Amino acid sequence: MIGAHADALRAVRIAGPGREFLFDDEPVDVLIRDGRIADIAPTGAVALDGEVLDAQGAWVVPGLWDHHVHAVQWALASERTWLGDAGSAREAAAFMSAVPTRPDGRRIGTGFRDALWSDAPDLEILDSATAGVPTYLINADVHSVWLNSAALAREGFRAPDGVLREEDAFEISRRLNAVDPAHADRAVRAAGEQAAARGITGIVDFDMAWNADAWARRLSAGFDAHRVEFAIYPSDLERATATGLRTGDAVGSSGLAKVGRLKVISDGSLGTRTAACSHPYPGEGRGVMTVEQPELIELLARAAGAGLEASVHAIGDRAASSALEAFSHAGAAGTIEHAQLLRHADLSRMARLGLAASIQPQHALDDRDMVARLWAEQTALAYPMASLVRAGIEVRLGSDAPVSPLEPWAAIAAAVTRTDDDREPWQPDERLNVDEAIDASVRSAVRPGDPADLVVCGADPRTADGPDLRRMPVQATLLGGRITHVR
Q: Helices 123-130 and 89-97, interaxial angle, to 10°?
């Protein structure tokens, strides 16, 4: 049945946007024509023909989006050694010592979080464990990479402690991700199928590459797991404008891939202690502005003049304020990515500018202990969610995969509960209700005229608790009426 085009869904209960148009919670039939919802009627009221998917009273929500993904790095993460359980630098180095060498002569690990380690990444520690095999350990936040001497020599970098940060770290990631295109495309396709099994019908791809050609190639080869909006980075802005790419333009004939926004990384991250903040980290300065405001204004103005919206990575409050100022001066539209530390006055400012906040709820839970240690002196609001909604700001949920897993139900659960362990909710006033979280995870509604991007759920999301949301059974996923997943 995968790949078949459904003409109708029989006996579903609408649990997401679209339910407000119904009088009750009784099952309905959803009729589909030409990839869109043609009609919704009480079950049995209209004769159904063609390919009918019988939901037997299950619940349906619009297709889910992950609004922040690094597609190739996410797809390749399964081929790398997971270091998220390492409790120290020595333990992480020991993990890597046992990793088989890859065909290209490297060892690659990913997902470590050193901010809470009692020891620090050190060149001698890694060298003693990994000898002469080029070894790379990618921080969970991707803003730093720990290399041994053999890897530093291979890449042509120097670092006393073996740690490269920010742009140097991104360059290492770009090199590690630059595998054979056929290999990358197979990995992206497999990852896309896994995402469809969790209800994903669209992603925003922030890969640090020229994504226009990559997605055109994947579509030509038959990729059809979900929709894609792909980013353009400043290094390719001139190329994009010369090519005439504009936000919303389709790439390829399928309509599944579209040009997204200019992506600018204006500061660092919490885990690498480089997010630009008003108050200092414990003994480590106030972070870094990787793109100062005058340059940011110029970039956003150039993009806006060429028809490109912008997405500005701003984690610290100092970076967020700078980004808002740049959007205002440039007259640009777009998003603030992450928005993990916001001055209270900047909430209303962001709303007035009409910018969306693209946030990753799971980060709040993964980082809560780091916040207590590293941001204890900050006076701005850490990891706001409900405050954004109350300010009238459009919120878009995502994962930042592979920083956290591409799992939309985990993002929804994190937003609704603000906890994923046995601890009490962190900052419970910042919880979203489930309707708000679903609204922030979709681009359409279950109503006539909208795309037939639909997710059939085995439980009612509106009554599920946190653990049940995280393990939400997805019975079927439809993309424009075509079945991309069915149990």
A: 20
